[in-house]
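Figure S4 source data
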Amino acid sequence: MPDQLAFDWPTGVALGPDDFFVSEANEEAFAMLGTPDAWPERKLALIGPKGSGKSHLARVFQAQSGAVLLDTRTIPADFQTDAATIIIEDVETLPQYAEEAVFHLHNNLRAAGGTLLLTSAQPPSRWSIALPDLASRMQATSVVRIANPDDALLSAVIMKLFADRQINPQPALVQYLTRHIERSFAAAADIVARLDAAALAQGRKINKGLAAELLDKPD
């Protein structure tokens, strides 16, 4: 992302592998994924809200470990693999027909000393898993969380969201949004999308004035 790297990233935000933004909100998760040998039973649940970078961080881990990455929406009922490192994303949406396959995958990895990374917006205790044996094994998984963003990370996320739309925001706009929106990844994505849409519809520049109108807050 060479264009994005031209930004003056906020103080306190570091660029990790593959341009993952590291701050106090996610530094524990970033560090944990770099040390799978330290995970109890070599399995870990990465928990964070939508838009927090779970998938990005999972792909950083995949690139470093050679893991096979699975999406719960596409796991077949008879899925099998000999891979030693597995990532399963969005485990809270695991369909019931795939639970038996994931149960055997989990047990085979454990027996072979393999590694399992799970991602979800919810902790294992809230996953709706019908198979009791799988539910108990998932609930015993160690958890690391990505918290809602601090100011530094929220600013970096807003800048990245603009960059993804080929928009180069003024620093004053980023600072304004960081102060006035809800401190969440979802809120950042929402306001950037709304600003882009409003600017196109009204033929206006994306600036603090437009942001103040959309947020119904003083400029």
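Figure S5 source data
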Amino acid sequence: MDYVQAIAGLVVLIIAGDILVRGGVSLARRYDISPMVIGLTIIAFGTSAPELMVGIDAVLNDAAGLALGNVVGSNIANVLLVIGVPALIAPIACNAPRLGRNYFIMAAVTLIFIMMAQTGNFKWPQGMILLALLATFLYYSATRSKQCSESIDPLTEIDGLEDEPDSVTKASFFTIIGLIGLAFGADLLVTGSVSIARELDVSEEVIGLTMVAIGTSLPELVTSVTAALRGHSDVAVGNVIGSNIFNLLAIIGVSSLFGEIPVSNNAKQVDLWVMLASVIALAPFIALKTKVKKTAGIMMLFGYTAYIFHLAQSSL
């Protein structure tokens, strides 16, 4: 039943996140909020809302290791899976406007996060610093987007938004149901995951790095694979960079306001550096503005498989 509960929680989170994005975007459009602002706020929050709710719920239920594991594991999966799998279908271009700048920001945020983690925990002061960095990033992105006329409408990257609610009442209902669903799904997932961790005699952090991280990265993976099949695989890299920045700054930033998030020795010695290695793996493609092809995709998947195997071995 623990596995059923955890899987049910994941399903509810994914569905609720989608409903929240549709409702929120519809409301924002009806109040004439620009697509750029919608992309930087509602869509950024909505697509990462499952991880955020899991982080908050984990901290409140004395399973803070699950919150850290989920974020670190999601960032690793975002690069090695969400980019690696579509690369097997079609080459992924890395020459989009401002991609190099956003990659540099992601790399800098990752390094700052790792240095902060070396203190052994994330408390509210660290959380405030991360949220201040997030606010700076959003303001900078908004300013740059206004200055660049070639800016892409972020709404065009979200598949299925043409089915958004067609009235304020319906959009409000979608938004409220999405928020309620996220809270309910997060509670199911955290409760089930903690029980599984105790049953298998492993830490909540390991469950967060594996099962929960992969589960909460599924929407991004499905979107990237669908885009690759439709010949738009270049969307994947930009989405991954944005998601990784938001995960580190927003999810840990907000979650740490609800309680202390400890950083285990394993995380400091292995997991955080694997996350950094996955970021560095993208550097040659971004710098040379070349494509991530099938060979590179296979290497990414091999690296992710090796990492999961290491986690399994270290848990025995």
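The chain has one domain: 2-315. Confidence is low (pLDDT under 50) at residues 149-162.
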